Amino acid sequence: MSSVIEKIETLLVDLPTIRPHKLSMTTMACQTMVIVRMRHSDGIEGLGEGTTIGGLAYGPESPESIKRNIDTYLAPLLIGQPSGNLNALRARLNRHVRGNAIAKSALETAALDAQGKRLGLSVAELLGGARQDHLPVLWTLASGDTRKDIDEAFQRLDERRHCDFKLKIGANPVDRDVEHVAAIKAALGDRAGVRVDVNQAWGEASAVRGIQALQEAGIELIEQPIPAREHAGLIRLARRFRVPMLADEAVADARDGLDLAARGFSGAFALKIAKSGGLQGVLELAHVAQAAGIGLYGGTLLEGSIGTAASLHAWATLDEMTWGTEMFGPLLLKDDIVTQPLNYHAFGVDLPAGPGLGISLDEDKLAHYSRK
Ligand code: MUC
Ligand code: MG
């Protein structure tokens, strides 16, 4: 008889960050991941991860709600269902549960990991095959201190770990943020690309002022300068400036992407498995973007190794992405819960080899960092 899903366990795992990570809406000292262990009747276990930023500071799902909603609502829908029909599992979750994209992403990841292990294929192979096996990865400078950020950037460059940097701004007045960014860009010169992520903190008038100054300072990409739902404003900014806009919180799935594209947005989309409800959903968004001539960027919600590996398997199936990726989540954490961390080198990261995600848990570390 073919395998069915037998048991779904969720764990809250708290890992400290290597330094405070300061964003416009919160400062993180710890990252909380929801780890999913999906056991199947053929004895195979699939791993998944659902992770967000700063409790409820970033979006409507918190780590605790992700766990609770999986345990109470989503897992019971999957128990007893055939293990290998990913499309049917996804349709079932979407039919009975609205929203909860991060929880759905964690479950789809676990189902894909198990199916890959079952068939002896990597997740990228299950998705049609990898076109890249080493992906570029930028680093986010967000210590909150200009001098520290500059030192950190030079260290990363010297280690050949990252050659592009994203600066988190929006917590300070516009002029102070612009000064901070311009000082970092001036220090790095042509050695590195510098982008900013405002995480929705500006109104449109502040954005016009800020982006003008950032463009003059040589910044190459402006991520989500204004609130997520202000699509018309984002399109106006994209039309107004030479420096491209990167839509992040504004674009969760293919429908958002289609709406922005149809209304004349140009620039790029940040793809995140967590926003799109999983790997299949994020690839649908990527294909809409490609059809519309919108650039791609492999985004993170600062997932640990499991969520990062899952994202890499999805990105690997795409053509080279215009703006590379930011899949550095595991590097921001002081420790890991997997036996073999991802291999970061040569300004990027290797796609882990399968089967499945190509990741295995370190049970001692998992037990140590799991919330009791
Ligand atoms: C975001 O909004 O892009 C990605 C990198 C980082 O530092 O924060 C995230 C979230
Ligand atoms: Mg962002």
TrEMBL record:
Q: Which GO terms describe its biological process?
A: amino acid catabolic process; peptide metabolic process
What is a GO molecular function of this protein?
manganese ion binding
Cofactors required: Mn(2+)
The active site consists of: K168, E326
The keyword Transcription regulation appears for this protein: no
Does this UniProt record's set of keywords contain Metal-binding?
Answer: yes
Protein's pathway: Aromatic compound metabolism
InterPro entries, per this entry? Answer: Chloromuconate_cycloisomerase, Enolase-like_C_sf, Enolase-like_N, Enolase_C-like, Mandel_Rmase/mucon_lact_enz_CS, Mandelate_racemase_C, Mandelate_racemase_N_dom
Superkingdom, taxonomy of origin: Bacteria
Positions of the Mandelate racemase/muconate lactonizing enzyme C-terminal domain: 147-244
Keywords of this protein's UniProt record, alphabetized? Aromatic hydrocarbons catabolism, Isomerase, Manganese, Metal-binding
Family stated for the protein in its record:
Belongs to the mandelate racemase/muconate lactonizing enzyme family.
- Could you tell me what this protein is called? Muconate cycloisomerase
Q: What is the lineage of its organism?
A: Bacteria, Pseudomonadati, Pseudomonadota, Gammaproteobacteria, Oceanospirillales
